[in-house]
Every structure is written in C-alpha cells, then in structure tokens.
Amino acid sequence: MRQLTLDLRPERTPRFDNFVVGANGEALDTVRLLASFGQPAAVYLWGESGSGCSHLLAAALAETRAAGREAALAGPVVEDADYPLPERGLLCVDNAQDLDAAGAAALFRAFIRAPARQCALLIAGKVPPSGLRLREDVRTRIGQCLIFELKALDDGQKQEMLALYGLSRGLMLEPDLIGWLLRHGRRDLPSLLAAIDQLDDVSLARHRNPTLPLLRDLMQGEQYPPEDS
Questions:
Q1: What's a Pfam family this protein contains (predicted)?
Q2: Into how many domains does the chain fold?
Q3: Rounded Cα–Cα distance for residues 226 and 186 (Å)
Q4: Which of 58, 120, 209, 212 is least surrounded by Cβ atoms within 10 Å, i.e. has the fewest?
Q5: Which residues of the chain are under the pLDDT cut of 70?
C-alpha cells in the first residue's frame, strides 16, 4: 500500500522579492511602481512560457491589495460583458494572445474606461503586440502601452531561480544537484520547476532527503524522463 503524506510545504506565492530578475530589472521596477502607485497607467509584458510574466502579474495583484487598493484578474467574459475596473486600483489580463472575441472587446472597453476610474492596466502575453491575433484596434491600444519583453534566464540565473524555488518549498538544494538537472533535464523553466516539484513529492513519500541520487532515480522513471543526450 502506498503511504500517504500530509502536505506541510509552505504555500508558494509569487512575490516581487522571489522573482529572479536576470536582465529584467527595468520591467520589475516598472511593475512595482504600477502596483504601488498606479503609474504608469498601462503596461504590457511579453515573453515565452516560463519567462515570468504570470509571476509579475500575481505579485502586482498581491502588492496592490497589500497597499489597501482593489485589484482584479480578468477572467472569461460573455459577449458585451466588461472586465472589473477597481477605482484607483489595478486590472491584470494574462495570456492576451488567447483572448476570444468577447475578451478582446472587453479589453478595448477597459482601455477606454480605465482613465476615468484611475485604474491601471497590466497585460501579459507570449508574443509582442504585433503578433497578437486580435482585432486591430485592440492591438493598437496594447501597442501604446509601456512594453517590456521579459528575457529568458541564462544558466547561472536559472540555477539561482531553482535554488530560490527549492527554498520556497522548504528544500535546501545542493549546487551539484541543480547543476546536474540543468545538464541532463529539459531546459525550459516549467519542466525544471516540475522536476523540483516531483523531487519534493518523492522525497516526502520516501522519507528521504532531496539528493542527487534520488533525482537521478526520478529522472529514470516515467514521470520525468531526461532528454536524449
């Protein structure tokens, strides 16, 4: 019988102070200002999956609320429905490239209505504004935002991020373990973070420390196969 374990790991909450900056210092500083003071009024972040756009949106939502202002994350809407625009608050729209016709229309109306409500807009996507398959007037509005491309992390920055992520789960990951994972695992950030998640789960289930031998055993299994070398 497989033994069940209580999940006593700390909650992983995206914050500004656990975002690994890399070459994205200006973007981080700008989103901090937007969350704290509502300026600049509209920012668009874009970057490949795992670049940190969603992390910064979640951190901005939390920081805005901590400052005593309302913040909302846009969800799916039906035709002619509007996104919530908290007065003197923040509206975040993630994965702009996936907006349907109703969502794109709601975003266009949000751009028009936001100044009167002094509501800042923070939008994120996986492509630059010109690559968004949205109606032209929405692309034009997004293109008028302050725009930042979030750059991918280099290996040293990935190592720092994985160590920080491990600490957020209560794990002290040795540099040799992280280095081995970067050499032999899939190199995109979602897969690297998934490997740490699985290592944590297995170490808890087996009552073993998260060691390099345990990681090797895990990567030889079906859950997280290594890339061909």
A1: Hda_lid
A2: 2
A3: 7
A4: 209
A5: 1-12, 221-229
Tell me how far apart the 2 most distant CA atoms of the chain are, in Å: 61
Domain co-membership, 145 together with 161: no
Q: Given this model, what pLDDT does residue 187 score?
A: 75
Instruction: Specify the CATH number for the domain of residue 171.
Output: 1.10.8
CA trace torsion 149, 81, 40, 64 (10° rounding): -100
The last residue of a domain, from among 98, 120, 149:
149
CB 195 within 8 A of CB 45: no
Residues 71 and 105 in one domain: yes
The identity of residue 71, as a single letter, is: A
- Rounded CA-CA distance 219/44 in Å is 37
Domain of residue 63: give its range.
Answer: 21-149
- The pLDDT, as a whole number, for residue 12 is 58
- Which pLDDT score is estimated for 138? 98
Amino acid residing at 52: G
Whether residue 76 has a cis bond before it, omega within 30° of 0: no
Summarize pLDDT for 185-204 with one digit per residue, the tens. 887 777 888 889 899 988 88
Predicted confidence at residue 219, as pLDDT, reads 82
Please report, for the domain that includes residue 112, its CATH number. 3.40.50.300
How far apart CA 200 and CA 5 sit, in angstroms, is 12
pTM: 0.78
Specify whether 47 is located in the same domain as 96. yes
